[in-house]
Amino acid sequence: MSDLAELAARLCERLRSAGLAVGADRAARFARAVMLVSPQRTRELYLCALATLTSSPADEQILARVFATVFPLPEAGAGGAFSAGESTGPSREVRAPTAGSAVDRLATRDFGTLEPAELAQLRAAMSEFRLATPLRRSRRKRVSPGGRRADLRETLRVARRTGGEPVRLRRWVSREKPRKLVVLCDISGSMEPYAQALLQLLVCAAGGARAEVFTFATRLTRLTRVLQRTPSAALADAGREAPDWSGGTKIGDSLGEFLDTHGVRGMARGAVVVVLSDGWETGSPERLGREMARLSRLAYRIVWANPRTASPRFRPSTGGMAAAWPYCDAVVSAHRLDAIEDLLTAIGGYSGRD
Known about the structure:
Layout: H1 2-17, H2 24-37, H3 42-53, H4 57-70, H5 101-106, H6 116-120, H7 123-126, E1 135-143, E2 149-150, H8 152-159, E3 171-178, E4 181-186, H9 192-204, E5 212-216, E6 220-222, H10 231-241, H11 251-261, E7 272-276, H12 285-298, E8 301-305, H13 319-324, E9 330-332, H14 340-347
Parallel strand pairs: 4-5, 4-7, 7-8, 8-9
Antiparallel strand pairs: 1-3, 2-3, 5-6
Helix pairs in contact: 1-2, 2-3, 3-4, 11-12
């Protein structure tokens, strides 16, 4: 993380020297984009910078020139630098899902207003997203020269090559792996279109297939295996698997069932838990508050996606949302395609509640 911060700071410093006004806010967006995308090539790193540090063709020309002096770009041609023409056009489509006029038109439409065919048109754009949870230390270890702990077994094994003399001390560090992602999706009548959109995102986005997925209205249904298929088949099967689709909502009861059945087995422990619901609780708000308190003691992070929060008049003052709010680490709307990035950022470990 410190290396990434230094990278962002140095790049932005050179951009400012070249005349491009990039402040701390843009540098932070660039760092978050790199964490979400995990670029494997220089070209991908450039696209992260292009999407977060520029706002005009003139900015892109400055970025291309400065970036080429910092990083080698073999895939950009013999000269190693991007031309102004190469920095515009399709390269803009990598993180901002605007692959065509239909997506442009639908990206700012509330999911609640989309027809099934229109929602299906967003699948290609959703495949550009990546669901990435924060890393955690694993019990497994790997040999590393920079490790703080000596690996005696590995040291003795290597010493066989030098007549049993431990010439070189081997060290190890803990491996890291992504935290579990658990999604609890409200499929009551008021949430049906948003549930369809989120389930489609989980099927299409890179990393979404690793999530544990449950739906609830009046009962809890596990859909993890169902969603490990093609988008159309997965969503069709999801409707058959969840018998209470478009029913009432008992959030507290469903959350309690999840914790009693799966939470005690460790599914929620140390996980990032996403709850998609508008908070319209037909059961007891007090029960919901108690179950959210239980969940907060197990989960690493709780992200609540509520499409109603997009309204400037929204206030979490009554009902289920008021009971759940104190236990949420982030609250986002995720009500349309161009708001999905806030959800992904919150899952990745950055606060989405403003």
